[in-house]
Amino acid sequence: MIEFDNVSKVYGGHPAVTDLNLSIGQGEFVVLIGPSGSGKSTTLRMINRLVEHDRGRIRFAGREIRDFKPEDLRRRMGYAIQSVGLFPHWTVEKNIATVPRLLAWPKDKIRARVHELLELLQLPHAEFAKRYPHELSGGQQQRVGVARALAADPEILLMDEPFGALDPVTRIVMQRELKRIHALAGKTIVMVTHDIDEALFLASRVVLLKDGQIVQDGTPLELFSHPASDFVVDFLGRAELGIKRLGLGSVREHLRPGRPTVGKAISVDASLREALSAFIVQGTPILPVINTNGSHAGEMHFSDLLLPRKDADPTKDQSA
Ligand SMILES: Nc1ncnc2c1ncn2[C@@H]1O[C@H](COP(=O)(O)OP(=O)(O)OP(=O)(O)O)[C@@H](O)[C@H]1O
């Protein structure tokens, strides 16, 4: 869907991105991560031509992006950024409808789409549609920014630290929301973040950059299982590698049959990292497990945390 072929960008003699090769397929959730100044935002912005590349080729849907008018390209790609950039004198409704109006959608279709997106992002239409950006919290503004990026059902969603300004609780809610939208709509998403936990939670593929070059490109599990260098290990957080890796697995993988037992139950969809925390907080070696509808599912044993993952084949996409 998007292909970078030996792409470079230089600013005033300083290389920002050098000989980048990257191929992003339909439906992937690719997270660009790396230290400050490593070229993440430059890479993202070259996709919708907010930044023009100097060398190499970038293709979108098989055509060179230079063959598209920038505005046509941007209408086909949603773009959400940390500072949101909502139009201050427009209501939430009008802000979300920006691209559909440019595309001259019929009014009814626009109204229905705005309604649908507000509900999807848990901003009830009756309460929020007529508000202005200054009447929203920072987190609500960011949700409107994401709704606006999704409005015309773009083929790709480009996101630059979209949850950067959020408090940790809202940030987790938004990450879950985005993961749900991705699973539901099968959108191709390319996102920049500084937050390794966010990357590991969301990405089907992580692209780790350093000094404008790719250090490693793989599934989260591949990065843990076969880190390409010490830099990768340090970036993943050397001291917490085991705990972070547990975050990639779920209770479901270690579910055992068992009768309901005492203790606070954990969901089959909880991560093994959450399970570890629950074992420690409850001081128990066995946790009751429930399904998403609250019914009894079985139990999990503390010792099973040490078992190798059933699906630990690093050649498989763990996001599926
Ligand atoms: N408009 C610009 N003019 C000059 N240099 C720039 C410009 N934009 C980016 N750079 C430089 O290019 C390099 C890559 O910047 P980029 O913003 O892509 O990095 P980043 O990984 O997104 O960083 P951060 O995490 O701090 O946002 C940096 O050295 C930066 O200083």
TrEMBL record:
Residues 2-236 form the ABC transporter domain. It comes from the Bacteria. Gene3D superfamilies: P-loop containing nucleotide triphosphate hydrolases. One of its GO terms (biological process) is quaternary ammonium group transport. One of its GO terms (molecular function) is ATP binding. Pfam families: ABC_tran. Keywords: ATP-binding, Cell membrane, Membrane, Nucleotide-binding, Transport. InterPro entries: AAA+_ATPase, ABC_transporter-like_ATP-bd, ABC_transporter-like_CS, P-loop_NTPase. Belongs to the ABC transporter superfamily. This is ATP-binding protein. It comes from Rhodoferax fermentans.
